[in-house]
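Lab notebook, bench 4. We co-purified these components, and the gel suggests they stay together. Before we commit to crystallization screens, I want a quick structural picture of the whole thing.
Request: model the full complex, all chains together.
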Amino acid sequence: VGVQQAQGPKVVITAGPTREPIDPVRYISNHSSGKMGYALAAAAQALGCQVTLVSGPTQLACPSGVTRVDVESAEQMLAACLSEVAQTDIFIAAAAVADYRLAEVAVHKLKKDQSQQGLTLNLVENPDIVATIAQHQQRPALVVGFAAETQKVQAYALAKLQRKGLDMMIANDVSNPEIGFHSDHNAVTLITKDRQQAFDIQSKKELAHQLMTEILQAYTNQESL
Ligand code: PMT
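Here is the predicted assembly.
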């Protein structure tokens, strides 16, 4: 009693890196801190949405009022997203998912090769989580991706939007160390098939609030079609 329940759309957000195990003590990963995805989750919650954060390993605390599902690998992240898909209205993929995983994870710690031949890891492609959700029978009304690019940012992001079947892409130029991975700040371009809108460098928290406002507007407009 007295606790207000969020009544707005159900939003699922992926955040952070994935970890692809090599053996019991080693993994392949990337520099995503989760800050962008967590800031979006907090903003969506503040705007009245029911939010589930599907998070790879991060150092961050779960924003209050948000449900967090912890995962490690891309396959676990996909399974967690698929188990929510039927109830999801808006899906936002801010995670930096590893594109590849080990073909076979070693059961025991790999031993250093005494023959000095080096070590070759055999990698296979991971499933594309946001594309799988966008092409699902129970597709959420709005599917939003992030694009991390180091060159031709807008053009590559638009191509990714089309290839993955998304409604909106948020492109960041990760060649700039001031923004993107790990930083507290970001600058992005919001891209749909019809328009592009630039958001200047600012804190991920402020940016997340502006982006969530745009995303909710797009969701409402779509619903009224
Ligand atoms: O976590 P931070 O330190 O705050 O950094 C934020 C960020 C830079 C990681 C974030 O803003 C960002 O850009 N996230 C997406 C990074 C990325 O993996 O981009 P991509 O261009 O490789 O992938 C495009 C889209 O497909 C993304 O929405 C990604 O989540 C999704 N994807 C990619 C591969 C895969 N196997 N499954 C996916 O769902």
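Residues 204-223 form the longest helix (20 residues). Worth comparing against the SEC data before the next meeting. The two ends are 37 Å apart (CA to CA).
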